[in-house]
Amino acid sequence: MLLLIYTLLCFTIVLSDSNDITKLITFKKSLANAAALNDWDTNVAPCNGARPNWSGVICGKDGTVFGLQLENMGLNGTIDMDALAELSTIRTLSFANNSFEGSMPDVSKIRALRGIYLSNNKFSGVIRDDMFMGMSSMRKVQLGNNKFTGRIPGSLNGLNILVDLQLQDNEFEGEIPDFEQKNLKVNFANNRLSGQIPPGLRNQDPSSFSGNNVCGKPVKSTCKITKEKHTQKALILAIIFVVLVLALILVTLRVCRTQRTPKNECKNNQIKKLNKNNPYRTSSKDMQTHSDEEENNKRPQNNGKLQFVRSDRERFGLNELLRASADVLGGGSFGSSYKAAMNDGPAVVVKRFRDMNNVRKEEFYVHLTRLGRFSHPNLLPIVAFYYKKDEKLLITEFAENGSLASHLHGNRKPNEPGLDWPTRLNIIKGIAQGLDYLYKQLPHLSLPHGHLKSSNVLLDNDFNPLLADYALVPIVNKHHAREFMVAYKSPEFSYHDRTTHKTDVWCLGILILEMLTGIFPANYLKQGKGGNSDLETWVNSVVREEWTGEVFDKDMKGTSNCEGEMLKLLKIGMCCCEWNVEKRWDFKMALEKIAELKERGSDHEYASSASDGDVHSSRAVSDDEFSSPESEVKLKP
Q1: 580-631: per-residue pLDDT in tens?
Q2: Rounded CA separation 371/310 (Å)
Q3: Domain 409-631 maps to which CATH number in 3.40.50.1820, 3.40.50.300, 3.40.630.30, 1.10.510.10?
């Protein structure tokens, strides 16, 4: 029996060594000038107990690869973090004193790292603000003597056991975050930092801040605070005044309740009635009903403060937001939304979130701050956010033309036209461009949007689309996300409990079909897994059994010779919501095909759209069909 156990143990160790060898050799291939690693022999295990057989390998007591110390080896090329991430036992990485260039390696792929040492190389560029998010074991970060730019990553502030942070001799700029970790030693010398040194770092050596434009303890340069003191006094007086006003309002509300005045008389002092013609309203299918009692409690409590994420927007306080006149825009799966009319600026939208406690406060701040820095003409800009344990607010700009859903499914006035083909084409192109931006900015997320549907596509004055509620999956409670978010209605999650980089493509496909047909995807109303997509199934059945012209929304008036282009978009939508993930188009393909669409085709293309041919299902559509006129679907006269 002991012999059997020993044999199994030896076999497990050999198998583990074999896996480590394969992964390390894969990593080595990404390096250039790697003559110092010539003893990395595939016939020899990296470790012999705690003793390394390979140069630069740090071994654990159990013979596993604990880390790499590849210092002073003249290495360059790239650092294959994907290969290293497959080494489950690795905890420390040092590439100091080499010749690596380019952006910082994505260390977030190895969440269990305890130390990263990249000093004295030629790394450059901005480090992602969330690079270190969730790396709770990280103790030492040494990035000195490189060419890093931009702000110091805010996610470093969330490393609770960090003891050594060396960022000297770079080109970091802006203010220093308020690090509060105990026993932390920092070195920020010779950067382009400015502002007052935060309280948590006043015990550091003054030399750690030399070569910057900073002030306050522990350096000798004092900060000019005269104006700040006057500002603080004015702010205190303003706060006292606001508190008195709020107290008066509370007394008035209590008197109203005591005298049992009608509910609407008291309620209208704080919030206007829901405007039935409000452009943000979707159909009743996509809204939750709310009782009068719930409406009275929808305004946030006066705790905490607003965190602004944009410098180009005039700031306002939470109390100003509370005093602003407000219209209820509606309630959805996340919470209620309001339009707040500020006295000295444009209106904003305040959206309350009830189920957003998936991450800690620090990670929430980092993620929302990053989203707030996004800038794209097809993304709804985030203005500010509010954090409290049981209350989250997201403040965004207001879109005058409301949601796409309200135009597709809302009640229109008599003789009011629906969205025509050129407008719908412009909207879908803008949606694709906004989604492309999210894919590029959030490559580490499998769901860059996660909740793409017509009620989350807003329209500006010129009917250009603005994506809303994007990239919220990391901070929304997992149970709530899986119950309500659109990505979790996809076939891959419904049947295999997983999402992929193609899941947002499926959502895009359903949205395309919704825009072309004018039919709301009924499966979105179901809580939990989506099951069959009624819309996609119906489109497939019509294309297979009938004339394709029956698919298109009767309210979608086109231009001359547009039928062929409409059919192309229909095929794109069907290929995007293909159930088989392997056969489904990736986003790059979808983006390319959408970009090729035009308002109208040529006379030749129009004639070919009436030629014989049929598409039997989305699974039968191939790339060739977009270049072969003979494959066009017939339109019913």
Answers
A1: 999 999 999 999 999 999 888 664 444 444 333 333 333 333 333 333 332 3
A2: 10
A3: 1.10.510.10
